[in-house]
């Protein structure tokens, strides 16, 4: 079972902006889109400075408390899909051939990667879907742990019952497990 999240989550209120929501609850956009069709495409997009209250009002007066509860419940489900950097390191001691998929760009992968990781290309995904043991743990990671959760959901949707997302991505792994991995910053993530 995963450790508790490494930080205390801020409470969500009707006045919380979507930027604050997404920083604290990285899967919130996916949760909002799945249940309410909000935030997944241009016609239902939201502004980072928009508050939860405003978002709910302009989307058929959704009950703000219900939306907040859904975001929080979805986050708790997401937590169950994560593995901490230290848990990953311990698991790799036991299973050195543990599948580790890097969902970042080729440029990021070429610059720095967790040893033993494979860049997740379309060919690798097809190979996994056709030939890998879908009950075995597979860990996916990105830079900071936000995008790889979507990839994990995709793998779970294709039968991988033990797909996990590396909490905090390669950045957290570098801090907590392997400081020899160079850290970097992407301006678009700031």
Task: Describe the secondary structure blueprint for this structure.
Blueprint lengths: L17 H7 L3 H9 L15 H6 L6 H16 L2 E2 L1 H10 L5 E3 L3 H6 L6 E2 L2 H10 L6 E4 L6 H10 L5 E4 L2 H8 L14
Parallel strand pairs: 1-5, 2-3, 2-4, 4-5
Helicity range:
40-55%
Task: Please provide the count of β strands.
Answer: 5
Q: Numbering strands along the chain, what is their spatial order in the largest sheet?
A: 1-5-4-2-3
Count up the domains: 2
Structural class: alpha/beta
Q: Between the first and last Cα atoms, what is the distance in angstroms?
A: 31 Å
What proportion strand? 5-15%
Order of helices and strands: HHHHEHEHEHEHEH
**Poorly predicted regions:** 1-6
Number of helices: 9
Largest sheet: 5 strands, parallel
CATH class of the largest domain: Alpha Beta
Shape: globular
CATH fold category name of the largest domain: Oxidized Rhodanese, domain 1
CATH H level, superfamily name of the largest domain: Rhodanese-like domain
Q: What is the average of the pLDDT values?
A: 91
Radius of gyration: 17 Å
Which architecture of the largest domain would the CATH scheme give at its second level? 3-Layer(aba) Sandwich
């Amino acid at each position: 079972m995963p450790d508790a999240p490494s930080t205390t989550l801020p409470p969500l209120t009707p006045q919380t902006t979507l930027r604050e929501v997404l920083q604290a609850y990285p899967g919130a956009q996916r949760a909002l889109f799945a249940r309410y069709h909000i935030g997944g495409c241009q016609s239902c997009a939201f502004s980072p400075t928009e508050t939860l209250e405003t978002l709910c009002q302009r989307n058929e007066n959704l009950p703000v408390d219900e939306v907040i509860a859904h975001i929080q419940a979805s986050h708790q489900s997401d937590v169950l899909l994560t593995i901490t950097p230290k848990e990953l390191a311990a698991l790799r001691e036991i299973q050195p051939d543990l599948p580790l998929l890097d969902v970042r760009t080729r440029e990021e992968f070429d610059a720095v990667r967790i040893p033993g990781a494979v860049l997740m290309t379309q060919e690798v995904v097809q190979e996994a879907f056709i030939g890998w043991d879908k009950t075995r743990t597979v860990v996916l990671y990105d830079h900071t742990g936000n995008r790889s959760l979507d990839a994990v959901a995709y793998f779970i949707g294709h039968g991988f019952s033990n797909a996990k997302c590396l909490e905090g991505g390669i950045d957290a792994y570098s801090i907590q497990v392997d400081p020899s991995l160079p850290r970097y910053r992407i301006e678009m993530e700031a």
